[in-house]
């Protein structure tokens, strides 16, 4: 239970990149286990979560334009995408907000899926598409366009710039289009194009993450039921001093608790979650409920 509690706590206090990592791990492991132990159940569920190359299937399951990015073809495929996602997420959030990362990530998945579907009209792309590669390509290319000279130290290679990494991956995808996994490489290019487009729009003062927020708010207002507030009687307390003292004591307790939370979060950012004491972990878990 301690490991499970620690995982839940890390999910709560982690940023959006960490949450996406958790979802990728959870969904992929469920499907990989089903594929091994219950192949008939796996075969039944896969068409409802993976992206089919048949446009007709998209009409029946439009959500697969996103859900396919949480599935992976195997453990190696999953681990590679998790490493790249963690690496790209940390660099991207140096310049942009977590909301912007979420926007470009999922738009990259969607456009990558559309490139796969359109490419299927002209090439042999395979029956289904899975993997977070297209979604991960979007923030990577966005970062390379926004900060092309940002230096990154890679093991066994040394210091390179972000545009070097982006150019290498895109050239590799283009070369491999005619060899194998054509559908996967097309989706990568779709994600890359989304990242490029996102930054070009940012430079023109158009932030797609704000547009999505406005659209979501309009939908909520459209379906939100307007309720008339009932007539309420107002009672005036005669004992004003006691009431004010109670409020002040609660505010003081909240201030002390928030200060302790901030200190613990600072410690996590400096030394990592494992540096916390048992009492600090229990305190964070209690306030996170």
From TrEMBL:
The keyword Transmembrane helix applies. It is a multi-pass membrane protein. The chain crosses the membrane at residues 21-45, 65-89, 101-122, 128-147, 154-177, 183-202. Pfam families: DUF6576 (PF20216), Rhomboid (PF01694). Keywords: Hydrolase, Membrane, Protease, Transmembrane, Transmembrane helix. Residues 254-284 form the DUF6576 domain. It is found in: Membrane. One of its GO terms (molecular function) is serine-type endopeptidase activity. Residues 63-201 form the Peptidase S54 rhomboid domain. One of its GO terms (cellular component) is membrane. InterPro entries: DUF6576, Peptidase_S54_rhomboid_dom, Rhomboid-like_sf, Rhomboid_protease_S54. GO terms for biological process: proteolysis. The keyword NAD does not apply. Belongs to the peptidase S54 family. This is Membrane associated serine protease, rhomboid family. It comes from Myroides guanonis.
């Amino acid at each position: 239970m301690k490991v499970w509690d620690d995982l839940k706590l890390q999910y709560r206090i982690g940023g959006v990149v960490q949450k996406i990592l958790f979802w990728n791990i959870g969904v992929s492991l469920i499907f990989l286990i089903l594929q091994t132990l219950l192949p008939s159940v796996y075969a039944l569920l896969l068409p409802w979560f993976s992206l089919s190359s048949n446009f007709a299937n998209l009409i029946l399951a439009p959500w697969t334009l996103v859900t396919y990015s949480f599935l992976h073809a195997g453990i190696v495929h999953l681990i590679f995408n998790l490493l790249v996602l963690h690496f790209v997420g940390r660099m991207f959030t140096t310049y942009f907000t977590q909301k912007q990362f979420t926007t470009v990530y999922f738009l990259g998945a969607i456009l990558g899926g559309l490139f796969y579907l359109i490419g299927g009209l002209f090439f042999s792309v395979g029956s289904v598409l899975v993997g977070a590669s297209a979604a991960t390509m979007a923030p990577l290319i966005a970062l390379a366009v926004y900060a092309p000279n940002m230096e990154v130290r890679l093991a066994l290679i040394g210091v390179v710039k972000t545009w070097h990494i982006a150019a290498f991956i895109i050239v590799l995808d283009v070369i491999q289009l005619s060899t194998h996994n054509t559908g996967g490489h097309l989706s990568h290019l779709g994600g890359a194009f989304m990242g490029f487009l996102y930054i070009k729009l940012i430079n023109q003062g158009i932030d797609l993450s704000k547009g999505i927020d406005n659209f979501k708010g309009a939908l909520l207002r459209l379906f939100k039921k307007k309720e008339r507030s009932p007539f309420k009687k107002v009672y005036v307390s005669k004992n004003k001093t006691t009431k004010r003292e109670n409020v002040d004591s609660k505010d003081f307790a909240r201030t002390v608790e928030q200060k302790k939370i901030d200190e613990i979060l600072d410690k996590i950012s400096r030394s990592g979650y494992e540096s916390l004491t048992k009492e600090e972990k229990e305190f964070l878990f209690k306030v996170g409920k």
